[in-house]
Design goal:
- The complex is a heterodimer of chains A (114) and B (109).
- With 114 residues, chain A is mainly beta.
- Chain A has strands spanning 4-7, 10-13, 19-25, 31-37, 43-50, 56-57, 68-72, 75-80, 89-97, 102-105, 109-113.
- In chain A, strands 2, 4, 5, 6, 9, 10 and 11 form a seven-stranded mixed β-sheet that branches.
- The mean pLDDT of chain A is 93.
- Chain B has 109 residues and is mainly β.
- Chain B has strands spanning 4-7, 10-14, 19-25, 31-37, 43-48, 52-56, 59-64, 69-74, 83-90, 98-99, 103-108.
- Chain B is globular and about 45 Å long.
- The model of chain B has no long low-confidence stretch (mean pLDDT 95).
- The chains are: A mainly beta (114), B mainly beta (109).
- At the A-B interface, strand 4, strand 5, strand 9 and strand 10 of A face strand 4, strand 5, strand 9 and strand 10 of B.
């Protein structure tokens, strides 16, 4: 298993600003994932972050809007840039633990954009 | 891409009742997980179950991969079972999980 923490747990931001969300894992992992959960909806994968390489973004998500860093095997950040009210969501990071390929999730960051 | 549909979308139970949640997927999968998202938003792993049957206390799950569905059984439900239940699948050659539409469960005391 894996224990994951995220900061901040919640925030209220003004439109046009940016917020960086941090994700810390208690063990070294190869793959980290960032998801978005809009109000009342399911989870949508934003991107996959591997250490030492550029993040891989899913259709509909771009690096300019959601830049991701992965400086080491236990840490990643997601920035939500130039925010609008449509970015109000829960943002979750997850990691994959092999043997079997199971995903574990952080507690999420609740973002409200005014 | 693969489609993952869950039913029912909403479910209200009295405490002590049993329920069955269903997850249908449109293509073959390599991995399948069930999660519970509690009212505070935390996602909790329930089962990793790409095939077969598993049980954990009052919860059990069955996946029939050849028929492309999985079932989650909740017996003797408790108010703490309330929340949203998601199944998530990944297909051969990918590491990405695609989440289903979810079932929102409310258990009344």
């Amino acid at each position: 298993s894996a224990v994951i923490s995220q900061k901040p747990s919640r925030d209220i931001c003004q439109r046009g600003t940016s917020l960086t969300i941090q994700c810390q894992v208690d063990s070294q992992v190869t793959m980290m994932f960032w998801y978005r959960q809009q109000p009342g909806q399911s989870l949508t994968l934003i991107a996959t972050a591997n250490q030492g390489s550029e993040a891989t973004y899913e259709s509909g998500f771009v690096i300019d809007k959601f830049p991701i860093s992965r400086p080491n095997l236990t840490f990643s950040t997601l920035t939500v840039s130039n925010m609008s009210p449509e970015d109000s969501s829960i943002y979750l990071c997850s990691v994959e633990v092999t043997g079997p390929e199971t995903q574990y999730f952080g507690p999420g960051t609740r973002l409200l954009v005014l | 891409g693969i489609q993952v549909e869950q039913s029912p979308p909403d479910l209200i139970l009295q405490e002590g009742a049993n329920s069955t949640l269903r997850c249908n997927f449109s293509d073959s999968v390599n991995n399948l997980q069930w999660f519970h998202q509690n009212p505070w938003g935390q996602l909790i792993n329930l089962f990793y179950i790409p095939s077969g049957t598993k049980q954990n206390g009052r919860l059990s799950a069955t996946t029939v991969a050849t028929e492309r569905y999985s079932l989650l059984y909740i017996s003797s439900s408790q108010t703490t079972d309330s929340g949203v239940y998601f199944c998530a699948v990944s297909t051969s050659g990918t590491y990405k999980y695609i989440f289903g539409t979810g079932t929102r469960l409310k258990v009344l005391a």
